[in-house]
Each structure stands twice: as structure tokens, then as C-alpha cells.
Amino acid sequence: MNWMIRLRWRKGSLCLWQWVFLAGILAFQGEINQALGQDVVISEFLAINNSESRDDDGDRSDWIELFNRSSQPVNLAGWKLMDGSTSATPWTFPSVTMGANARMVVYASGKDRVESGRPLHTNFQLNRDGEYLALERPDGSKATEFTPQYPPQSPDISYGILESKGDEEIVLDLNAPGSCMDSRG
After folding, report:
1. How many other CB atoms are there within 10 angstroms of residue 95's CB atom?
2. DSSP state string for 69-100
3. What is the pTM of this model?
4. Are 30 and 94 in contact (CB under 8 A)?
5. How far is CA 97 from CA 45, 113, 139, 181, in A?
């Protein structure tokens, strides 16, 4: 489904109520994104990967799992992942499409890779002691935000959101990036 708002403006033609209406539309852009099926969240992450899955270089990199909760595919071009480090700029997704109800793993390795057809790697690593972590939509609204920070992490134990429990943040004792957490007990 595509939404388009067409405004015709002539000098002196917009009244105060029209400006208020336009501002209201822009203020609810995050809700519009969700209504259009752009409901992607950080569902799970692992900040200390000592013995779990390896990335495409064979390294045990930190990872972040995204989940598209909608019934529509979402192109992530322009979406951003950001951590709490003051030196790192937000990492921007290339044009990559997540299928409906699909999961995607992005390695938080610091390798900064956005090559088509290869696993994605952020320009930052996750802090084991806890830090701010967010997924930002292209309009600047936050799709997921661990604020002020996620708690200190333990080796090989992931942290995430249990979708069937109203987005409650939980510690997960099994790590399986790219698979559904609801089946873990």
C-alpha cells in the first residue's frame, strides 16, 4: 500500500489550519510508517560472543538481530543503527529488503561493510558494560531504543525482546541469531 499526499500551494494560499494539518501529518510520520508495514525492530543482540556463531570472516563478532513484524517487505535503505559511543557516527543500511515476518542478522563487528550480497557489518561493536542502542527509521524516529542503555551483558547470553510478551526486554539463555525467540520456552 502506498500513501501519497499532494499539496498545491499558491502564494498566500495556506491558512493557519492548513499549516497545523500539515504539521500534524509530519508529527505522525512514525505511526504512518508502521501503518505502511515498516515495523522493523531490534529483536535480539549478543554483546560478548566468545563461543557462539561466527561471521563471514570466521570471527566471533557481536551481532544484532532485526525482525520485520509486519506482513509487508521493508527496504532498509536509509535506516540506521547507532550505539552510545561518541566517536561513532550512526551506521546506515544500504538498499536491502527484509521479507515480511523475516529476521536479519547484522554483525556489530566494527568492520563497516555494506556490500551487496554479503553479510552486513556495522561500524561499531557493542559494549559489554551496557550502552545506548537504537534502530532509527529514515525519518529520524526510533523503531527500537534501549535507553538510557541496555544492562551489562554476560558472555554468550543474548538480550532481546520477547515479541509474544508485549515487547518485554528479557535475557535469553540460548543464542540463535535469525530464529524466533518465542519457541525458547
Report:
1. 10
2. -SSS-EE-TT-EEEES-SSPPPEEP-S-EEPT
3. 0.73
4. no
5. 20, 16, 17, 22
pLDDT in tens, 133-160: 999 999 999 999 998 999 999 999 999 8
Topology annotation, domain 16-178? Immunoglobulin-like (2.60.40)
pLDDT range class, residue 179, cuts 50, 70, 90: low
> From CA 55, how far away is CA 110, in angstroms rounded?
12
- Integer Cα distance of 83 and 123 in angstroms: 10
Place of cell 543464542: 175
Give yes or no for residue 174 having a pLDDT over 60: no
d(CA 96, CA 171): 29
Report the distance separating Cα 26 and Cα 32, nearest Å: 9
| Domain layout of the chain by residue ranges | 16-178
Statement: residue 20 has pLDDT above 50:
no
Residue with cell 531490534: 42
* pLDDT value, residue 80: 97
